[in-house]
Fold this protein.
Amino acid sequence: MSEYHLVRRGDFSYKRVIICYAIGILVSLGIGALLLIGLGINPIEYYGRMLSIGLIGNRYAYKCIEGLLKVFVPLLITSLALGLAFKMRFWNIGGEGEFLIGSICAAIVAFNSNGMPKILTIILMCLAAALSAGIVGLAVAALKVKFNTNETLMTLMFNYIMLYLIRYLGNTKAGWNFFLNPESERPIFGQFEENCKMGGIKIGCFTLLYSVIAAVMITIIIYIYLKYTKQGYEISVVGDSSATARYAGMRVGRIILRTMFISAALIGLAAGLATSTAGTISESITNNVGWTGVIVAWLAKLSVPGIFITSLLISVLQYGCQAAATQYPSIDSNFADLLQGIILFSVLAADFAATFKIVKKEGPKND
Amino acid sequence: MQAAIELKGISKSFGSVAANKNIDLTVGKGEILALLGENGSGKTTLMNMLSGIYMPDSGSIFIDGKKVKINSPQAAGKLGIGMVHQHFKLVERFTALDNIRIGMGKEAGVFFKSGYTRKYVMEIAERFGFNIDPDKYVYNMSVSEKQTLEILKVLCYGAKIVILDEPTAVLTVQEIERLFEVLFKMRSEGHSVIIITHKLNEVMEVSDRVAVLRHGEYVGSVETKKTSEKELTELMVGHKIDLNISRPMIEKTQPLLEIRDLTVKSDEGNVAVDGMNFYIRGGEILGVAGIAGSGQKELCEAIAGLRPIVKGQMIHDGESIVGMSPKKISKHGISMSFIPEDRLGMGLAPSLSITDNMILKSYNDSKGIFVDRKDARIEAAETIEKLAISAPSTETPVRRLSGGNVQKVLLGREIKSGPNVLITAYPVRGLDINSSYMIYDILNEQKQKGVGILFVGEDLDVMLALCDKIMVMCHGKLQGVVNGNNATKEDIGLMMTGALNIVNKEGKTDGIAKDSIIKDGKEEESV
């Protein structure tokens, strides 16, 4: 009788990790291809369109890049922010809620801006968004520090509070409700004035939004923050062992409060930028970044460059599926979510294969 | 002698690490076999294979001459092998009897025929001379009672071969004696006992034969009667080693740290340290002996400023340190290294590099917002070299180091800050002989520099050899202070259990220095 069992690999090599991940992604694309064939679609053609995000043979190719970046920026900033909290082993899964409250507060500024200068308005919107989300994060952290509440539950519940808040605002026709379009009979959210919309640098036809520049700068700042600053060092110590941090004389409570404020405020900032870019609000403004960001942060193993690359790839996947969907009426952008799920599974399996090996148990030799 | 259990060519590896290589081992019926070996020599792995937790990669196991396959703890139980683990596996909220009953399975009946099991259990307890109250709840039991229950449990499940993993680590001298009596009783009943231990004197006392493992290989076995502690150590380590711990005598200074009437509460709110008085002079090692959980941890944390005190005075260098932050106390020259049971829990951040762990207490001393790792790297390299830490580089995560090296990193950091009072709790916890002696040397070196050392320890033999004075705690109370060179283990054991108290003996109060700078009454009012 032969048996199989798992053995942890003694050595570690980047080569094996990369090979395992590549195989994982190929396998998931393969499964996706089978699904596509089932729907009567040529998978090679479809994947081609998806990965080229509709650039090829398009007169307005620059529009595709702009669209991709609009998906990319909020996802990148949110993933970085979540990674920051996760590094401290603080399970902030309230990205959605923090994003929504940020969005609502940015919209409050926008709807009341009354022709303020553009730069000032947008900065105010971002500040309002970051501050409001930061306060939510701070509240959860304070409860954790003071009463040792479970942050996973608290942040999760905030997601629903914020979701129903924005639904309430979007469905209630009333004199005070400045969020709605006053000309419409049905309750729908109003559009921002021109002074609230994100501007950018014109490069030919292509507009490089300021939000993209902001996102890249935030990435670099967080990289330096985590790797070289004292506060970043404190985060890694607290995350590794809070008992040790306490023994070293660190004020663990304060570090948790500070880091969670930064994490939530960054998500709020992402919301402010996204809201300004969209020019309106809606309950789907988050594009699920609060959830996708969790996946991105873990796929990247909380490394900042890893998060940058992973969120870019996930954005290509999402936007590419949208772009490809215009050509194939039988499938829509939900296919992106499906494929994303399959990829996540395969990558986890790949990670497992990179750390463990399966060994066939040999019977005793000296029988 | 007839063999109860026979291992032939057993090998087991984890990844590329071979934990056991081709081991042959025989245990006779009615024999007590001591299994000796340094840390990482594969003792626990081998025993885990006998108790069905691991399966050997190759080799075979014979029980009563028949070849068997042990692929689960249940299978081991059926074959009559029972293991008493270092960490007890008992349900705290159950009584002794219920703890035995839950593992009985079918024999106890669907509805737990309580009369039957009670009779059965008590019969066995009587046969082996256990003194146990079947209706006592586990959470009310002392450590030794819990261990008695564990042993009784495996005997009730029909074990003929009982494996004990470091059973004496948590017991007092008197309790150890009682345990050995039980073991002798088991031997006379024809049971086989395998006992894993680090303590050579116990090996000499209790075992019939000693089997030695070294680096996963079976070195051989010797009859206890025909060997000596020295020979066993050489077998274990593979070369000659000087077993004497030196106790250099140096000029002692005035008390560096004085503690008066200190009372501290535990996390649960009980009084953990109860009105303790003691002092440490420069150039001496003050040992702290006591059963685990007698308030040692709380005492250390109170001195380091990590735990608020209820009342009392703590004077260091003529200044009260009560109410100071941990950072301030460490600046003041008091440094603490506490090795918890899991070793890495306090004092070190396991995923971080050696460099990052070196700066854990000092990272905030440099100016600006950035961490200065350049100097830290040099410091880490110096410490690695000075303490002979075996690590690939200064950037290796601490968790990849072996136990001894981890503890050296911790001590190295504490010494680096140049303290004049060093509090070290369980610094050799789980270390093998070589590494332990390295740590003793480091401590002696500090002592010779005039540092006052508070050494919270477990092994009385070591403490008697190393410490200038030993103070004994029981339930947070000081039981007395004895001299390292004339105290006996028996006295300390009695003091640990609270049976002997020598404070205030002969009109002299232990724990208060004659040349104390604390003026009685005067300073106490100001606190």
